[in-house]
Amino acid sequence: MKPSKPAIRATAVCLDLPLLGDKVQETERGGSRSVGGRLTRLIGSRGQVRALDSISFELNHGDRVGIIGRNGAGKSTLLRLIAGIYQPSAGTLAVEGRLSTLFTNRIGLNERATGRENIRLAGHLLGMSSAQIETLLPEIAAFSELEDFIDLPLRTYSSGMSVRLGFAIATALDPDILLIDEVFGAGDRSFQNKAQERVRRLIEDAGTLVLASHSSALLRRFCNSIIWLDHGELKAFGPTDAVLAEYELSVASKQTNA
């Protein structure tokens, strides 16, 4: 029986991040301007960015949801919030189920550990027994196409090799909720096809998918609904074709007026 609670429920979620580095200038009227999100106030002589602003949505188990928006819209930030890497500055976020992440960087992987050791570590973090991990390990190693590199430290891997390993781990451990951030470009065409087929099988098993991507074609293939973010705000949330059509029209309009 599927859980009765929503897989993910966000209620008026806000996330404020300090603006590090160079000092920023306050506008004449003290208003906000976009800096990835929106500049909300000055802390001394430094700024604070509201990366996500009053985001509310509810995802049920088995939903396949895409996140779209221009660079700096908050797509990756929202994924990291759901993953627990960030905590909300305001509002509430509830996640029900075993969660696995696949992001474009090496979050969750140990640079000093070998590929094989990273597989075992990830399995233990997800509550798997040693026997379960050892059963899955050969399949994960084969899928990642690392061959002898599986027993070398992660710091010796190229970025593509790291992403392939992360993808193989995240999708082999049967999570209830899978978060993916722009990873289908890793590897050659053969691996990209394998990755998309693996996600398709996960979807058929009714796992909840949240996929951030710039590719409308990819989102149309995998997702039944779309979250459109703009400067950290929820612009739209609804059926895939309807939201993507609105988003694409907005992008085309801005390019025409540029």
Automatic annotation (TrEMBL):
One of its GO terms (molecular function) is ATP hydrolysis activity. Pfam families: ABC_tran. PROSITE patterns: ABC_TRANSPORTER_1 (PS00211), ABC_TRANSPORTER_2 (PS50893). The keyword ATP-binding applies. SUPFAM superfamilies: P-loop containing nucleoside triphosphate hydrolases (SSF52540). It comes from the Bacteria. GO terms for cellular component: membrane. InterPro entries: AAA+_ATPase (IPR003593), ABC_transporter-like_ATP-bd (IPR003439), ABC_transporter-like_CS (IPR017871), ABC_transpr_TagH-like (IPR015860), Bact_Polysacc_Export_ATP-bd (IPR050683), P-loop_NTPase (IPR027417). Belongs to the ABC transporter superfamily. This is ABC-2 type transport system ATP-binding protein/lipopolysaccharide transport system ATP-binding protein.
